[in-house]
Amino acid sequence: MNGEQDMRMIKSQGILIATQVFGVPDDPALILVMGATASMLGWPDAFCTALANRGFYVIRFDHRDTGQSTTVQPGEASYAVEDLAADVIGVMDGYNLDSAHILGMSLGGYISQIVALTHPGRVRSLTLLASEPLGWDGPALPHISQEFLDHFGILASLDWASETATIEFLLTSERLSAGSGQAFDETYMRGRIRQILARTTSPASMFNHAILDTRQDWIGRYRDITVPVLILHGSDDPILPVKNGEALAAGIAGSELIVVDGVGHELPLSKVETIADLIAGGIPQ
């Protein structure tokens, strides 16, 4: 791949956000917004490279309390989901971008909907991957599987000082997130988890995201999104099942829903090129 692939620290609301770019600055910018507890490494290098090769200037970043961004101790977070949305704008400002395409996964999609509503002039398009409607006001949608809830039940007793215990906990989380369309790559995932842990001084702080709330009433507001929207959802998603993607598509006028067969709540390496093609084909240039 030709072009930049460097790290840059961006100041946002008095904190530091670690960012990395892939591609050529003259190409349209595409900001990747990861989900809860996830650093920029939630976006595989191969995926970022695939998007850059399709003509995007890709920017991924560490949410606060993950990776190399500003981190506070577990339970000490005082920010809200709206602050994470403001961090996306902070990243745009840090790169002197008037506007950008935004790709958000899971909570990152929720955050991205807020950005599209609060700063519509700065969002060229929105791609929502494995996400849910902002301020859903209909009948209850299916959410996280009982198996996953049972797994999270051991968090209170997890020894974060033990690298082995931490890796096994996070590895099981990834395995439970995976779909049926491809074999779970344990070797790759162990390596990625080790990379994630090497980039943070407080791995437990990522779960500050689990207690986040919103400051504003967003009920029904996802219907007010006016920028072009592409919705991608795995058929096997065990955390936000595909009915969440269907609800998004039904509520956002002009949006397009594509269901990716055999994919869970994940970005499997075997589907990187396919998903990059869907995004490049669905984003208006």
From TrEMBL:
Keyword Cell wall biogenesis/degradation assigned: no
Pfam assignment, any one: Abhydrolase_1
UniProt cross-references to InterPro entries, sorted A to Z: AB_hydrolase, AB_hydrolase_1, AB_hydrolase_fold
Keywords from the named record: Hydrolase
GO biological process: glycerolipid catabolic process
Domain AB hydrolase-1, first and last residues per copy: 28-269
SUPFAM superfamilies (alphabetical): alpha/beta-Hydrolases
Gene3D superfamilies: alpha/beta hydrolase
Keyword Ribosomal protein among record annotations: no
Molecular-function GO term, any one: triacylglycerol lipase activity
Name of the protein in its database record: Alpha/beta fold hydrolase
